[in-house]
Design a protein that fits this description.
single chain, 135 residues, mainly alpha, 6 helices, 78% helix, globular
Length: 135
Amino acid sequence: MLNNIDLKLKLKIMYILTIVLAGGFGLAMLIAPAFVMALFMMPPQDLYLYGVAAAIWTTFGILAVLGLIYDLHKYMPILLFQFIYKLIWVFAVFLPNVIIDGARFDTIVLLLIFILFIVGDLLTLPFKDFFKKNK
């Protein structure tokens, strides 16, 4: 059924999710870091590293806006980048830490959001096209 959905529509959906979730969350983290940390019950952390994540997620949101306004296909690497880094985070950061320390509320929320994006990107991105050689 999902294969019948037009690629442009799937890209639009993923860009909108990126704008709302990544961009919105990143912006909230930049504007009100203490509120976001309290809301998601995050432990105290280095605000500079926290700010890096906030800036990156805000940037994803801004680039997704450009993807909607201009060429949907031109901005697909944003989705590919998100797909790869979220997979790495799940397997190299989340799972080892959950095994050692258990899961916290904020990490479970983040995991669920990341899984939403991983599945969405997996269903949206034309992976076979990424590996075609140019003629």
